[in-house]
Write a structure and sequence with these properties.
Helix content is about 55%, strand content about 10%. It is α+β, with helices and mostly antiparallel strands. The strands form 6 sheets. Strands 2-1-9-8 form a 4-stranded mixed β-sheet, with no helix packed on it. Strands 4-6-5 form a 3-stranded antiparallel β-sheet, sandwiched between helices. Strands 3-7 form a two-stranded antiparallel sheet.
Length: about 950
């Protein structure tokens, strides 16, 4: 690793030196061109001398740094060699000492081996002696045999006595066996007798219980049969029947369809604009006539007074709104009265409920059956063929309606005038102002929610008159119904266009309607055109103020907002439900019906009796099971008694045998006779115990011996190692010390080299900066001097120009490559570009194409690379000579051949870059291959110059030229 680092550092220093020597080296010859004269003068640039001096100084300083670093590396190598020599000397001396003391070492090893052998023999002898001192097993075996033989001999001498004792013993055993047999037979007889008795008793109880069970089951089955017969009989039950009750509902006088009028009269599906007055209905058809007088029996308009078109009460008023009028019969009016003071609040709510239902009926009927009218109204609002949402009347709209009525009353607005400014009221009192105040928060929230979309406010007002010849709620309701028929269906089939009232109601964007009832004054009803025929009873101007929002003409968004819970609480649901219930409801009628029981019914009715039968059968089985269990328990008890008796017989026999053995043993002992088998077993057991004890003792003695021998070897080997170390001391500590010292030297050398690298880099950067400044100055002077020169191969053409070269102070500096990458530094330092001057166009000149600067090889470098160079192209001088035209302007041959010259601004210079090849100054230790010019870079420059000159119409000579 050390040598590798040193070589890398040396390579970096050499590359840095190479870069500092790279520069722009050109030798030029100048040619002045005139109309009648041409002369070549070879000149040597003074700037070349300055450049060479700077380069020589840089080379010298870098060479000195390189030499110093080489010396330090050489010193480290010498130190390493010296350390290795000392280590080798120590190893050699140690080997010589080992050779010298070989005899002593061998003698010490032999002495150690003899000592170990002697001590091991002594330990083995001691172990054998200990084994021999243990009890002799053969001796014990002989002693046992002798004792047993003596016992056998003694037994033979007492043979007769023993025979008598044995005879008595056998008689005692026989008596005991006879007694056992007789006692066992008695116990068996007693057991069999008891079992037979128990069986007889159980059989008698079982027969009696079975008879009882059969009777109980028979009675339960009879009861179930009776209950089943009763359950199968048909029976009467009370019931309630649903009876639908349809109330009387008046029907319109004529079954009329609007399309018939469209076909007959050619109704125009057209909605007039609102920039003028709201279109007035024409009311030209009897079926949809202006019905202000339609409620009176003597009216000429009402020709059909059929009973089915005459309601008798509010509950008979139709809730839908089909085309056609209703008639009124005061004699059959059963509705509540209306006082001279006018409608009560409850009566107003009933009329609001009816009017709301009629407006929704008209909207839905037109959408379902007369779609073309609906679509033409909503064609621009996004609701074509889109079903609308029903209108609602809530506390929110009631407040709007009440405020509108109050404002109309305050400003004395009659029944022929809308709630608008033109009727004589201020802007803040108009219906639009009232609606805007009520909906401003809602609109603000919607505008914020649908940011980026347009929120349209749909508000409008319809107005009609309601009166009654008879002061009843029904008369007012019929009058309002017929008035709305003319206002809506009458305008739907207007011959010229759809009327404004119908258009207002068909607008799909509205969601609520505030229906107001303004009581008219006598002055209002007395006016001409008021339409009020009888002033005895109060008359009303009825306002329909519709409110809604259309979200960006998007039906889905609009309907989603319409279905939100933001429009208040409904206030007419109760009134509508009362009318709906009267017109249709379901009554509960009590009655009876005959029911034929089904199998399920019978099953349910007889479930109790079926359960009783099941219980009886279960009880019968339980009683039988109880008898069987008791019988089995008795048998088990008898068996246990029998087993106990047999156990006692066996116990008695065992006692008799034990006694006989005891008597026999006592008699034999009295005679001095022992049992030979027992005695022999006793002797054998004692011998086996002795053998086991001897084996354990022998194993311990062997282990002690082995441990003693191992310790002897260990101690003797330690003594031998000490003796050998005394004869030949180790040199490992001295070698370790030398190696540590050398590593310290290496570490110090690395630190020194790191410091040298930093110093060299600083020195290199300083020299490079100085070199840059000097070269920049040289370049600026060369540019100033050659502002009017054009380089053609090895010649310079000086052109006369009235324009002076401006010094803008922007001097290009030559950037020196960083030498961090040796390969990059070595290649990028070979070719650099130099700015070439342009030809500036004067007031009387046409543009002359800029000729490329063709580089030449320095003479000093040429000799070094001559063997590897390729033929450099040369510009033929005659091709670039300017020609003079008749009008005195100059035109270059290149310009006439291909007019691609670029016009130049008089205040700027067009810079054309060209490559310059310079010889690389090689340090003393560089290899021969590194001294060669990079031929590929040189070729690239030549090819670029060839391409540019070819564009200008200039050709190269095939001959090689030298200066």
């Amino acid at each position: 690793m050390r040598n590798s680092n040193t070589n890398n550092w040396r390579s970096t220093a050499l590359i840095a030196g190479a870069i500092l020597t790279a520069g722009v080296v050109t030798t030029t010859s100048t040619t002045d061109v005139h109309a009648d004269n041409s002369q070549n003068n070879a000149q040597v640039s003074n700037d070349q001398v300055t450049y060479d001096q700077v380069r020589a100084t840089a080379d010298q300083q870098l060479a000195q740094l390189q030499s110093a670093n080489d010396s330090k590396e050489a010193q480290q190598a010498a130190d390493l060699a010296q350390t290795n020599a000392q280590i080798n000397q120590l190893k050699a001396s140690h080997a010589a000492l080992e050779q010298e003391q070989a005899g002593a070492i061998a003698q010490a090893q032999a002495s150690t081996a003899a000592s170990i052998e002697a001590q091991t023999s002594a330990a083995n002898a001691e172990y054998q002696q200990q084994i021999n001192t243990q009890q002799n097993e053969a001796t014990q075996r002989a002693a046992n045999d002798q004792q047993y033989a003596q016992a056998v001999s003694q037994a033979a001498e007492n043979q007769q006595a023993v025979a008598d004792i044995n005879a008595q013993y056998q008689k005692a055993l026989s008596d005991a066996a006879n007694t056992q047999t007789s006692q066992a037979q008695a116990a068996a007889n007693n057991y069999n007798s008891a079992v037979a008795k128990e069986n007889d008793t159980y059989q008698g109880k079982l027969s009696a219980q079975q008879a009882t069970n059969a009777e109980n089951i028979k009675n339960a089955e009879a009861s179930l049969a009776s209950a089943t017969a009763n359950a199968n009989k048909p029976y009467e039950v009370a019931t309630t029947n649903d009876v639908s009750v349809t109330g009387r509902v008046a029907k319109p006088q004529t079954d009329f369809k609007v399309p018939a009028y469209v076909t007959k009269y050619g109704i125009h599906l057209e909605v007039r604009g609102y920039n003028g007055a709201i279109p007035v209905s024409d009311y030209t058809y009897p079926e949809f006539a202006n019905t202000y007088y339609g409620e009176y029996p003597d009216s000429a308009v009402i020709t059909n007074k059929a009973a089915e078109s005459t309601p008798h009460d509010i509950s008979e008023m139709p809730l839908d709104f089909q085309p056609g009028l209703l008639s009124y019969d005061a004699k059959n009016d059963h509705s509540e009265k209306v006082s001279a003071d006018g409608l009560t609040a409850d009566q107003v709510q009933v009329l609001r409920a009816l009017a709301l239902s009629w407006e929704n009926g008209f909207r839905n009927n037109v959408f379902q059956n007369y779609r073309e009218f609906y679509n033409v109204v909503n064609k621009n609002d996004g609701f074509v063929n889109v079903a609308l949402v029903d209108l609602v009347s809530t506390d929110f709209t009631d407040n709007i309606a009440n405020q509108v009525v109050a404002n109309r009353t305050k400003y004395n607005i009659d029944n022929n005038s809308h709630t608008v400014i033109s009727s004589g009221m201020p802007a803040e009192a108009t219906y639009t102002s009232v609606i805007n105040d009520a909906t401003k928060n809602l609109k603000k929230n919607l505008t914020s929610e649908f940011n980026g979309k347009t929120v349209y406010t749909d508000v409008n007002e319809n107005l009609t008159t309601m009166q009654a010849g008879t002061p009843t709620l029904l008369n007012y309701a019929i009058n309002l119904y017929n008035s709305m028929q003319g206002m809506y269906y009458g305008e739907l089939v207007n011959p010229t266009h759809i009327g404004g009232h119908a258009v207002n109601l068909l607008c799909a964007g509205v969601r609520t309607v505030g229906i107001g009832f303004q009581k008219l004054t006598d002055e209002m009803t007395a006016k001409n055109g008021s339409g009020v025929s009888d002033r005895k009873n109060p008359s009303y101007a009825v306002t329909f103020d519709h409110v809604g929002f259309n979200i960006d003409h998007d039906a889905n968004l609009t309907k989603e907002v319409q279905n939100r819970n933001v429009w208040g609480t409904a206030t007419v649901d109760a009134q509508l439900n009362t009318i709906k219930t009267a017109q249709y409801h379901v009554n509960k009628v009590p009655g009876t019906k005959t029911v034929t029981p089904t199998a399920t019914d019978v099953q349910k009715a007889t479930a109790s009796e079926q359960q009783k039968l099941a219980d009886v059968k279960a009880q019968a089985q339980q009683s039988l099971d109880a008898l069987a269990n008791a019988h089995q328990s008795s048998l088990n008890k008898l068996a246990q008694q029998y087993n106990d008796a047999k156990a006692q017989v066996k116990a008695n026999y065992d006692v008799a045998v034990t006694k006989a053995v005891s008597v026999c043993d006592a008699a034999l002992k009295a005679t001095g006779v022992v049992g030979l088998q027992a005695y022999k077993a006793q002797l054998d057991s004692a011998y086996q115990n002795l053998v086991k004890a001897d084996q354990v003792a022998a194993q311990k003695l062997a282990a002690d011996r082995d441990a003693k021998i191992a310790n002897i070897k260990k101690v003797e080997n330690v003594k031998l190692d000490a003796k050998i170390n005394e004869l030949v001391p180790s040199v490992d500590p001295q070698i370790k010390q030398l190696q540590d010292q050398h590593q310290a030297v290496i570490a110090h050398g690395d630190a020194v080299l790191a410091e040298l690298k930093a110093e060299n880099k600083a020195a290199y950067n300083k020299l490079a900066e100085q070199f840059n400044v000097q070269l920049a100055a040289i370049q600026w002077r060369e540019n100033a001097k050659r502002a009017n020169e054009v380089r053609l191969a090895n010649n310079t053409v000086v052109l006369h120009s009235a324009v002076k070269v401006a010094n803008d102070g922007n001097i290009d500096t030559v950037a020196f490559p960083t030498a961090s990458n040796p390969l990059q530094a070595e290649t990028t330092g070979r070719v650099q570009t130099v700015s070439a001057p342009s030809i500036v166009k004067t007031a009387t000149q046409t543009p002359i194409a800029v000729a490329p600067v063709v580089t030449t090889v320095n003479h000093a470098a040429e000799n070094a690379v001559k063997s590897n160079e390729s033929s450099a192209p040369v510009v033929t001088q005659t091709t670039a000579v300017a020609a003079t035209t008749n009008n005195g302007t100059q035109t270059s041959v290149a310009s006439t051949a291909d007019n691609k010259a670029t016009k130049a601004d008089n205040s700027e210079k067009s810079v054309v870059k060209a490559g310059t090849v310079a010889k690389k100054q090689t340090p003393a230790k560089k290899s021969e291959s590194s001294q060669k010019v990079d031929q590929s870079s040189m070729s690239i420059v030549a090819l670029a110059a060839t391409a540019l000159l070819g564009t200008l119409g200039i050709t190269y000579s095939s001959k090689k030229r030298h200066n």
